[in-house]
Amino acid sequence: MKPSPGRELIDLGGRQDEPAVRRVLGQSHGSTEALEEACAHYRSGEWTFIGWQEGEEILACAGAERLSSGTIGIRSIAVAPRWRNRGLGRTLIDALAERSGAKRVVAETDDDAVGFYRRCGFAVEDAPPKFGRARYWCVREIQTDPLLPVAVNEAFKFSADLEQQAVCLVAQFDLVAARFPSEGRDAVQRVAPSATVPADLPSCAS
Fold first, then answer.
1. Measuring CA to CA, which residue among 178, 175, 176, 205 is closest to residue 193?
2. What letter would DSSP give residue 28?
């Protein structure tokens, strides 16, 4: 059985026009015009653009503009729907700050995303409304850690290993159940610890 592809924190500079990247990036911008404006900045290299990738799939992306020597502004941040609530967005914010050496990260957002920024440790204040919608200023003082990207990569590799072990165990139970069809899956699982394991049972050893 093939191992799960590794998840990597990558530089997306110059890749903003790839379909896989635009599908995710587009979720961060409310219109085609806003998306094209952001892509122009990433294309020119004015804004930093990074993301999480697994195999050929882009899981999440984020971009920032340097506002001063110690401050960056988040201009895009998006996570593909099935990869949400796993901390990918927060790690991208931390990585953007680390890459730029920023001590402060700022963002302007609306009701749809203000909860995300609060969970990431941002202080939130009301900003002037736009187009009849509430807006918020978000500010986070951040201490960068040069080991952060390495630590996060290792965490995701560990997660991928656990997923692979789970897949192997399911395959093992399927094969054992096939050898004892009259017992059924539940019965085989109960007796499996003391049963003789067939020689051709798939191995989950690394």
1. 176
2. G
Instruction: Report the SS3 class of residue 176.
Output: helix
160 is written with which tokens?
């991928």
Q: Are strands 48-54 and 57-68 parallel, antiparallel or unpaired?
A: antiparallel
Q: What tens digit of pLDDT does each residue of 26-47 get? A: 999 989 999 999 999 999 999 9
Consecutive H or E run containing 79: strand 71-79
Q: What is the DSSP code string of the chain?
A: -PPPPPEEEEE-TT-TTSHHHHHHHGGG-SSHHHHHHHHHHHHHTSSEEEEEEETTEEEEEEEEEEEETTEEEEEEEEE-GGG-SSSHHHHHHHHHHHHHT-SEEEEEEETTTHHHHHHTT-EEEEEEEETTEEEEEEEEE----TTHHHHHHHHHHHHHHHHHHHHHHHHHHHHHHHH-TTTHHHHHHHHGGGSPPPTTSPP---
Give the position of tokens 């901390």. 87
Does 201 score more than 50 pLDDT? no
